[in-house]
Specification:
The longest helix is centred in the middle third of the chain and has 20 residues. Helix 2 packs across helix 3 and helix 3 crosses helix 4. The protein is about 65% helix and about 0% strand. The N and C termini lie far apart (about 30 Å). By secondary structure, it is mainly α. It contains 4 helices and no strands.
Length: about 80
């Protein structure tokens, strides 16, 4: 699957194109757990980029994400982004 570049369109368009490609690749097979799969696929890189941009300041990153700091910490632990 070719990576979608933001210069090619909006984030919405990139996600939509990726999902359409995913369904095409399934070739008629029905997916299972699609919501959880998508959330896991998006959440880790989101956290990685936001933490980098926030210079690993969890309070700032939590604010940017609209999350409670404890919730952010839990997610960082789940994705093994912190010890």
């Amino acid at each position: 699957m070719e990576a979608c570049r933001m210069s090619q369109g909006s984030l919405h368009d990139c996600v939509r194109a990726s999902l359409e490609s995913y369904f095409h690749d399934l070739n008629g097979t029905e997916p299972a757990g699609l919501h959880d799969m998508l959330v896991k696929a998006v959440e880790k890189p989101l956290l990685e980029v936001v933490m980098e941009q926030a210079q690993h300041n969890q309070s700032r990153a939590a604010q940017w994400l609209g999350l409670n700091r404890n919730t952010l910490r839990k997610k960082l632990l789940e994705h093994k982004l912190i010890d």
